[in-house]
Amino acid sequence: MDFFSYEDGTYRCEGLSLEDIAARHGTPAYVYSEKTVTDHFRKLDEALAPVPHVICYSVKTNSNLTILSHMASLGSGFDIVSGGELFRVQSAGGDPGRVVFAGVGKTREEIHRAVEAGILMFNIESLPEAELISQVASEAGRDVRVAVRINPDVAADTHDYITTGKKETKFGLPLARGLEVFQAIGRMPRLSPVGVHCHIGSQITELNPFTEALQKIGPLITRLREEGFDIRYLNFGGGLGIIYHDEAPSTAARFADSILPRVRPLNVELLIEPGRFVVGNAGVLLMRVIYIKETDAKRFAIVDAGMNDLIRPTLYGAYHEILPVRPRASRKVTYDVVGPVCESGDFFAKDRSLDELQAGDLVAIKSAGAYGFVMASNYNTRPKPPELWVTGGSVRVARRRETLEDLVAAEMDALKT
Length: 417
Ligand SMILES: Cc1ncc(COP(=O)(O)O)c(C=O)c1O
Hints:
Blueprint: E1 4-7, E2 10-13, E3 16-17, H1 18-25, E4 29-33, H2 34-47, E5 53-58, H3 65-73, E6 77-80, H4 83-91, E7 99-101, H5 108-117, E8 121-124, H6 127-140, E9 144-151, E10 173-174, H7 178-186, E11 191-197, H8 208-226, E12 233-235, H9 252-263, E13 269-272, H10 276-279, E14 283-294, E15 299-303, H11 312-316, E16 322-324, E17 332-338, E18 347-355, E19 362-365, E20 387-391, E21 394-399, H12 404-409, H13 413-416
Parallel strand pairs: 4-20, 5-6, 5-13, 6-7, 7-8, 8-9, 9-10, 9-11, 11-12, 12-13, 15-17
Antiparallel strand pairs: 1-2, 2-3, 4-14, 14-15, 14-19, 16-19, 17-18, 20-21
This protein binds pyridoxal-5'-phosphate (PLP).
């Protein structure tokens, strides 16, 4: 469940009025609900309780330090894809011993940082990468645990850009080469191959792709054990979908019911890397209508947030619900909700029927907690919005609004020479 709702005529986060939040902190602004994050994490944790497991929250989804610190306090581990994300986990007080590191392009520096930090394991995506990890680990005099990311060639029925388990994608190594890859890695100094990793995509609303992937991965684990590999972990990735519009995604309980009967006989510690499921519905992007503009063809609601703040609608054609913070209960009107950025792709909704809006109105874009702020940019020299963390009845500024000075700071030295 999420903790956003209408009460006394205004939209609220954990009971706090978004009008008050906008008055105090300005717009646009991301507003996150701690209770929602906690609820989602706990639901998954409880559903997986019948097997030994670690939830490794996927840092890429929303990497704000306050969220990472909260996840650590809930007992979460972390899934990272860069040295930068490891730095964030460490800065937030997360335990590197509960960090798994995926990604097809890990550099020597990133590997070195992770080896020195003593992460739980690397998810290896290619043999050249394994060789480099072995080299770096040898130089550092450290043994490292690795899992091999297997690409099971399963269709996830989601957007092409977030499908990762089909053989045409750049991710993982083919199932059919699994044994051979483990044998090669087993011969590399300082590497202990202890796990199999598989992440088939994101915003997956059906259970079939997960069970199909497991049906393919399970026999590989059995085979590897027969060949003498000490496989102790199955990392099943993330991907659980959420409701943006009219999806009917699986619940944590149904997900667990469908995978656990196949996981239990494997006798492994289960790792999973959820991101969107934990934080997606825990955030809104709060913005204000600047103008209403009517042309022969369209009626535009021009808001003060843009594609640089939330790129999902234009990048993925993603649907986000748009709610007036104080509905007027007047007539419905069809709008294109667009930002100020100089691109026709700068929109949040097209031909959307909404309660009639006026300049000055506040609106909230729902389900903006995942892949929202983390994908924000400064395009058009627009400062990034603040991230506001609603906790225990008050608002904490988890990231302040950027200033124009922030935006030029890294360039000023060039003018001094
Ligand atoms: C390796 C890996 N694990 C986990 C995730 C998180 O996925 P989601 O946010 O769909 O749970 C991703 C994102 O695509 C990923 O690439």
